[in-house]
Design brief:
The structure is a single chain. This protein is an alpha+beta fold. The protein folds into two domains: 3-117, Endonuclease, Chain A, CATH 3.30.870.10; 123-238, Orthogonal Bundle (Arc Repressor Mutant, subunit A). 44% of the residues lie in helices and 17% in strands. The longest helix is centred in the C-terminal third of the chain and has 15 residues, at 186-200. The two termini are 33 Å apart. The relative contact order is 0.14.
Amino acid sequence: MTGYLANLTAELSANIDCTLLTRTDLRDFALGASDIEAVCDVSRRGTTVLSLARLHAKAYVIDSSHALVTSANATHGGMRRNWEFGLAIEDRDDVDQIGDLLLSGFGASHQPQTWGIHDLEQLREPIRHFREQLPPVRVLPEFEASELPVLTINHAARESLMAGLPGWTQLVLQGILALSNGDFTIQDAYSFGLHAAAIRFPENKHPREKIRQQLQRLRDLGIIEFLGDGSYRRIVGSDDY
């Protein structure tokens, strides 16, 4: 997500409903592959922002009348300068099907997460700290998820990240960072999360569901990776542990 798309949406009438499906990996933002300010801008103007880990598709849907499935990113280079390839679709049934696929995360096993403007703005400081912690890398126009570096953050970055997350997400992240092994399972998350949740959120009647939600949130932030069959890997750690 860049300023180019944010500027385009700014030209739309206020009564037009917009939805953006994007990645919210903190390392994307820290490396400059995506722009947190652009995401905040479109959210502030009323766009619904959804996140999906490892998203790489480029599809654009307008009403139920037009769709573009293409290799082009929503950047000035992708739309105006580079040689790209895409397919424009005007059949309403096909357009609706593409729109449904987009909103459902293109068949991903988990539903895209919704991000409000407050949640997005809270990521600014963690991103700044992440940028300071990143090792030198060659600047690329776009980073694949697999190319993003594994990262160990210092105390200041960890505290900034914690401060920018809701209480349930903080609870699960604290447990994950404290694990001695970077690989863990959903049962490990329940082991530390259910006990902590009983103390911190005693009124909640569905702690397992909340823990699973936070694991997806942390996956979309690029802090953990889902390996399949209830297994995860921590890809951002803290030198406090």
